[in-house]
């Protein structure tokens, strides 16, 4: 009967004292450690990036809420102004026409006066 330590009758992949299987395992283990460390750095970077994105989203949502309230107040102000214009337009057209004629005459006399002074 032969000894298991010399490569026969032992577990598969065990080559006795030559160390071929152990060196292959060691190289794979080192590469796994290197890849694991690289993956750890990438996960940490993605985590910090996602946290920053979360903070930015919260800030943008706050800004949008403020803009929404400002637009609501502006819409109310504009609505009230339009209602006042509707009331004004329903008023007497004769009165408005009279004001327009007086303004036109005033502008005409100012222009006449400026031309006369030259």
UniProtKB/TrEMBL annotation:
Keywords for the protein's UniProt record, in alphabetical order: Coiled coil, Golgi apparatus, Membrane, Protein transport, Transmembrane, Transmembrane helix, Transport
Annotated ranges, domain T-SNARE coiled-coil homology: 26-88
Subcellular localization, as worded in the UniProt entry: Endomembrane system; Golgi apparatus membrane
Bilayer topology annotation: Single-pass type IV membrane protein
Domain of life: Eukaryota
Entry's transmembrane regions: 96-115
InterPro entries tied to this protein: BET1_SNARE, T_SNARE_dom
Signal sequence annotation: none
Protein name: t-SNARE coiled-coil homology domain-containing protein
Organism: Pipistrellus nathusii
């Amino acid at each position: 009967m032969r000894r298991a330590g010399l490569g026969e009758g032992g577990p598969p992949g065990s080559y006795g004292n030559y160390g071929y299987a152990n060196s292959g395992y060691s190289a794979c283990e080192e590469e796994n450690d290197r890849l694991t460390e690289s993956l750890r750095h990438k996960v940490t970077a993605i985590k910090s990036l996602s946290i920053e994105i979360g903070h930015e989203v919260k800030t943008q949502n706050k800004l949008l809420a403020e803009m929404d309230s400002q637009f609501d107040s502006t819409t109310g102000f504009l609505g009230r102004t339009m209602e006042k214009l509707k009331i004004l337009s329903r008023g007497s057209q004769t009165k408005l026409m009279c004001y327009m004629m007086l303004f036109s005459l005033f502008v005409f006399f100012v222009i006449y006066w400026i031309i006369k002074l030259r």
